[in-house]
Amino acid sequence: MTATFETQRAALADVVAIPVTPFAEDGTVDPATYRALLRRLLDGGITTLTPNGNTGEFYALDPAERRLVTELTFEEAGERAAILVGVGHDVPTAVASARHARDLGASMVMVHQPVHPYVSQGGWVDYHRAIAEAVPELGVVPYIRNPQLTGARLADLADACPNVVGVKYAVPDASKFAAFARDAGLDRFVWVAGLAEPYAPSYFSAGATGFTSGLVNVAPAVSLNMIEALRSGDYPAAMKVWEQIRRFEELRAANGSANNVTVVKEALASLGLCRREVRPPSKPLPESERAEVAAIVAGWSI
């Protein structure tokens, strides 16, 4: 690792996979299945993993489970992938999680959006600064979902914390993203399209060079096909992938993304790779909708 975090920056300019967290029949985390799903991602060519992301049901895991998921990821992936560990909640909890990740060998952490009814822009900077300063040797990636946040505030954070090297931007507005990135410093950060494949073409056109993915759990080759097309500037090819996955992603996004994780786990269940169970406040799909997910997945080259 160098002071310029070039290795971390390169890892972010890619398909950033968000692994699901599978549960056993008794409702606990299923380590063996999680390891198998990670191996499938790695064998499929994925080289950047985010354990404890939203598709991993971060907010439904207790602290011990989040540590377990992190540890399992390092044990299974080893040197085969860059690992961007999701951290969050209150500042002491986020700092403890980041230091745990560092001690396991992490080179990056992603800071989940602050969950608080009253988020000021200055307070947003203070929150991320406290975490970034606690682990100066790690690359830090804020996960931005707040449309009120300005690019100038991100620039303020990076002025104070040079280890803030990337941004997972998940506001569903390509025009706002383009302006935000330029106000913050387009070339200063690696911009990751945080709303996955459906938004990747438009966000790449505005400066993103990586995108996150939950779909990749199901079909790694599909996600890799999209990023290869985007890297080569072949937007017609990228949009062919977009059309291929459109209905799957529409099901995930419906009703305020209520079934975001549910649809991914249902797809994995249809392939016999994972139980479909999710934790509240998510809920498994009703029987009437499961067949559609299975049919979509059956039409992909997996």
Keywords:
302 residues, alpha/beta, TIM Barrel, eight-stranded parallel sheet, 12 helices, 8 strands, 49% helix, globular, lyase, DapA-like, Dihydrodipicolinate synthase family protein
In short:
Keywords: Lyase. The protein is built from twelve helices and eight strands.
What does this protein look like?
This protein has 302 residues and is an alpha/beta fold. The chain has a single domain (4-218), classed as TIM Barrel (Alpha-Beta Barrel), CATH 3.20.20. 49% of the residues lie in helices and 11% in strands. It has 12 helices and 8 strands. An 8-stranded parallel sheet has the order 1-8-7-6-5-4-3-2. β2 (48-49), α3 (63-77) and β3 (82-87) form a beta-alpha-beta unit. The longest helix has 23 residues, at 235-257. It is globular, with a radius of gyration of 18 Å. The mean pLDDT is 96.
Question: What is the topological layout?
Answer:
Layout: H1 6-12, E1 15-17, H2 31-43, E2 48-49, H3 63-77, E3 82-87, H4 91-104, E4 108-111, H5 121-134, E5 139-144, H6 151-160, E6 166-169, H7 174-184, E7 190-193, H8 200-205, E8 210-213, H9 220-231, H10 235-257, H11 260-270, H12 287-298
Parallel strand pairs: 1-8, 2-3, 3-4, 4-5, 5-6, 6-7, 7-8
Q: What would you report as the Rg, rounded to the nearest angstrom?
A: 18 Å
CATH architectural type: Alpha-Beta Barrel
Number of separate domains: 1
> CATH superfamily, called what?
Aldolase class I
Q: Please name the CATH topology.
A: TIM Barrel
CATH class (first level) name:
Alpha Beta
- Anisotropy-based shape: globular
The largest pleated sheet is described as:
8 strands, parallel
Spatial strand sequence of the major β-sheet: 1-8-7-6-5-4-3-2
Stretches with pLDDT under 50, minimum 5 residues: none
Structural class: alpha/beta
Distance between the terminal alpha carbons, to the nearest Å?
35 Å
Strand content: 5-15%
